[in-house]
Amino acid sequence: MKVIESLKNPKVKALKKLLTKKEREKTKRFMVEGFHLVEEALNVEAVVELVITPSTTLPAEWDIDAKEVTCVTEEIFKELSDTETPQGILAVCKQPVSEFQSSFQRVLLIDAVQDPGNLGTIIRTADAANLDAVILGKGTVDVFNSKVIRSTQGSIFHIPIVKRDLTEMIQELKQLSIPVYGTSLQNSTPYRDVERTNSFAIIVGNEGNGVSQEVLKQTDHNLYIPIYGKAESLNVAIAAGILMYHFAE
Hints:
Blueprint: E1 2-4, H1 10-17, H2 21-27, E2 29-33, H3 35-43, E3 47-52, E4 68-72, H4 74-80, E5 89-94, E6 106-111, H5 116-128, E7 133-136, H6 146-152, E8 161-163, H7 166-175, E9 180-183, E10 189-190, E11 200-205, H8 213-216, E12 221-224, H9 236-248
Parallel strand pairs: 1-4, 3-4, 6-7, 6-11, 7-8, 9-11, 9-12, 10-12
Antiparallel strand pairs: 2-5, 3-5
Helix pairs in contact: 5-6, 5-9
């Protein structure tokens, strides 16, 4: 086990850089923090290195004999942590690489969702609804952002996350005879009025602007969720959850 006690240590500087999107894209690495997320990462063999504090006790059942473990001071760990109450453990992980497969029949497409909490919650719900994949379009927040990771609660390791141009993705889905449903308040149909099918693709969009008009023009149907109270709109993660569970039943 390596022991590091200086904030100026090159390893500490390298780890801290992983808090930035630029470094994550460059190295194809990201960090997860806390016992639950680290265990999820270990279960899929994504962990490259563990970082702990002197007071951290690792679970006896974890198989980490082949893993690099670095022990840092509490002060250093706080510099690396992105949580209010650090648990004293994080892991450097390999970014999972997923491509769209023709076998994927139930997918969710994300058009420029920018809030990390929303994206993480959407991924978690897609996992719970047993979808085959989540497709991230341009303008969407970095899926390896620490707030996104926490909001997924480990689901980022359970469901394929694919980055694609949505216009190209829609054409590919149509070639596979998968119905593509956009979400919009204009020229749309109540979601319950659309017959459920075994395969489907649902598109949800940006918190302020919704799904882009360019994308909506390519869909088979555009749907809306009725609002019965005085709220102006639904949160995108809530809307995505309603639609995913409706079609996944």
